[in-house]
Amino acid sequence: MKFTPALTLILAMVAAPFASAAVHVTSDQSAKISQELVNSLGVDVISIEQSPVADLYQVMTDRGILYVTKDGTKLIHGNMYALNQGMKNLTEAAMLRHV
After folding, report:
1. Are 76 and 64 in contact (CB under 8 A)?
2. What is the count of structural domains for the chain?
3. Residue 85 lies in a domain
């Protein structure tokens, strides 16, 4: 069976949430990242989950969303956009899911 580009795109969009959901943040990783953010920034961590980027966690805090590397040593603050989805603001979408 030959897939058309449109069908391939639809299948990728349907499968993407399940693929990213399969990556789980362990309690040890979560505790380490939470403690580092509390110590460094004084923020309250609400949740930590896999971001749309491999090895980068999306951390919901009382001051917004931060992106932290898997090892907990690097932090990115700002919006993440999906270039392949018409510049969809993924950070804003994540914040709306937590309201």
Report:
1. no
2. 1
3. yes
The CATH number that applies at residue 53 is 3.10.450.70
Render the burial of 8-37: b for 16+ CB within 10 Å, e for the rest: eeeeeeeeeeeeeeeeebeeebbeebbeeb
pTM of the entire predicted model: 0.73
- Domain of 64? 25-97
Q: What angle do CA 92, 94, 99 make, to 5 degrees?
A: 95
pLDDT single digits (tens) 5-22: 544 444 444 444 444 444
